[in-house]
Design goal:
Blueprint (H helix, E strand, L loop, with lengths): L5 H15 L4 H16 L2 E8 L6 E7 L9 E2 L4 H9 L3 E3 L23 E10 L2 E11 L6 H39 L10 H14 L5 E4 L6 H10 L8 E5 L5 H9 E2 L11 E2 L1 H4 L4 E5 L6 H13 L1 E2 L8 E2 L3 E6 L3 H7 L4 H7 L2 E4 L10 H16 L5 E2 L1 H9 L5 H15 L4 E2 L6 H4 L13 H19 L4 H8 L3 H11 L12
Parallel strand pairs: 7-14, 7-15, 8-11, 11-14, 16-17
Antiparallel strand pairs: 1-2, 1-6, 2-3, 4-5, 5-6, 9-10, 12-13
Helix pairs in contact: 1-2, 1-4, 2-4, 5-6, 12-14, 16-17, 17-18
Length: 506
């Protein structure tokens, strides 16, 4: 391979700086194409992103080509762009006018002498998968070496690969929300496009029309209550009440009164008659959250109601009959609790008629940005702030974190970030310290790459040094035994926000 010239190295360095900046992803990519045009003579640059399901290449960003209002796509293998997207191999067309595979679907070269133009097209690969296509044309006589030009364009594609991947995810999420998502989701608040969440949506749809008892199980913060509400709203009982009961918050002495009500004088302090939660839910749905925390006494009383759909309030001689649908939820392993004798076997079988598993957020990583975007919109509207996007460095933190608190933790994180954001962008500095100070490893072992592990360790060393140096890059360089120039480069490379380390003036 021919080494790059000094000028081309400068171009690559400037592109790396652009990608490391906190600007909008689309603006980043437009700036890259503009830089290519002004510095290398590669005109009319285009970036197409791939739809992960269909493999269709969608023209997303362009320079020197007007694509406003146009939706230009290439099927797998269609035209030069479609071929590169499908094969993952670069292609050079030395004479656009004579190559029948070149489609010029944008019409940008229609009034030009295409025989004088060459077309260069390279794949954009992230995590060993083609996520997009980078293409540009150039005056054919200025192409001294096809290999060199492809090498240079390939280096650019490598630099922008992560940004294109994130951009593709953003666009996919937007399309899903606007076109498909609402029709698939049983609830506006129940969000996801991962395989596991689609399975949840399917189960909710299947069980909603019946009166079957449902047990929703999963870790704390996964959204079990949302599933229960979605079932209720999609059911024939949607006009009836939805009554939620937190079983973990009720002591044994009050559980019977809380669930079934009492007569006046039934016990000390019962100064008036009170309806129980089951009676309040008549004609609708009762949701018993954290049902695994019920005591043996409470379990026995609940079993009777489930079996007979009737009960006797405390201090009353009369029987109250109810027509309710029962949905329960737990974060416990009830199978294990049954085996150990902590939970009644007969009650378990009554509750576990139709189980629905809510996956933890770490098992549905593709939904993190979708959920984050939803929460940004939600809380921006609530606090009347014009926060519109999440910066690339902040996205990196969100995707790297393991989310032990699941969706609830993510929601709290975004709510905090929206409140702290001074402009229209959530940056890494607005995220909680747990996300900023350490990029927690995913639950699954890294499948990859030595480079990724080294980069992660190097970044943590620089962050620690910057903390000790209170944001002074020269001091941090001395602590690490390197130069200020290298620290500046690494800070830009890893998107480290040095402002948060600087000592505040008194």
């Amino acid at each position: 391979m021919k080494p790059f010239s000094y000028d081309d190295l400068q171009v690559l360095h400037e592109i790396a700086r652009t990608i490391a900046s906190p600007m909008d992803l689309r603006v980043q990519l437009e700036t890259v194409l503009k830089n290519l045009s002004s510095s290398t003579g590669m005109n009319r640059g285009m970036i197409s992103i791939l739809d992960r399901d269909s493999g269709v290449a969608i023209l997303d960003v362009a320079h020197g080509v007007d694509i406003d209002g146009l939706e230009i796509t290439y099927m797998p293998g269609e035209g030069i762009t479609g071929q590169v997207a499908q094969t993952g191999k670069p292609i050079v067309v030395t004479n656009m006018g004579k190559d029948k595979q070149f489609l010029d679907r944008t019409g940008a070269r229609r009034n030009l002498n295409q025989c004088e133009l060459a077309f260069l097209c390279v794949p954009i690969i992230y995590d060993e998968k083609v996520v997009g296509v980078l293409s540009a044309d150039k005056v054919a006589r200025e192409v001294d070496s096809q290999e060199y030009e492809l090498q240079l364009l390939g280096e650019v594609a490598e630099l922008i690969a992560k940004a294109v991947h994130i951009r593709a995810v953003e666009e996919e999420n937007r399309r899903l929300r606007n076109i498909i998502g609402k029709s698939l989701r049983p609830s506006e608040e129940l969000i996801g496009n991962s395989k596991t969440m689609k399975e949840v949506f399917g189960l909710v749809s299947q069980v909603a029309d019946s009166s079957t008892t449902v047990l929703v199980h999963g870790e704390t913060g996964t959204g079990k209550e949302l599933v229960a509400r979605a079932i209720h709203k999609s059911s024939p009982r949607s006009n009836g009440p939805f009554v939620e009961v937190n079983c973990a918050a009720m002591p044994d002495t009050l559980i019977e009164s809380e669930l079934f009500g009492h007569e006046r004088g039934a016990f000390t302090g019962a100064n008036q008659k009170r309806r129980g939660r089951f009676e309040e839910a008549n004609g609708g749905t009762i949701f018993l959250d954290e049902v695994g925390e019920l005591s043996p006494l409470a379990q026995a009383k609940l079993l009777r109601v489930i079996q007979e759909r009737q009960f006797q309030p405390l201090g009353s001689n009369s029987i109250v009959k109810v027509n309710v649908r029962i949905i329960t939820a737990t974060n416990r392993d009830l199978d294990q609790d049954v085996a150990s004798g902590k939970f009644r076997t007969d009650l378990y079988y009554r509750l576990n008629v139709f189980p629905i598993y809510m996956p933890p957020l770490r098992e549905r990583g593709g939904d993190i940005l979708l959920l984050a975007d939803y929460f940004v919109e939600k809380y921006s509207r609530q606090v009347k702030k014009a926060v519109k996007r999440i910066s690339t460095p902040a996205i990196d933190f969100l995707l790297a974190y393991h989310w032990p608190g699941n969706v609830r933790e993510l929601e709290n994180c975004i709510e905090r970030a929206v409140l702290l954001a001074g402009g229209d962008t959530i940056d890494s500095i607005h995220l909680p310290p747990t996300l900023q100070m350490k990029m927690a490893q995913p639950a699954k072992k890294h499948r990859g790459k030595l480079e990724s592990l080294v980069n992660s360790y190097e970044r943590s060393l620089i962050v620690d040094a910057m903390k000790d140096a209170k944001g002074n890059q020269s001091h941090a360089a001395r602590l690490l035994g390197t130069t200020k120039r290298i620290i500046q480069y690494k800070v830009e490379k890893y998107g480290i926000d040095t402002r948060r380390f600087k000592a505040k003036k008194a």
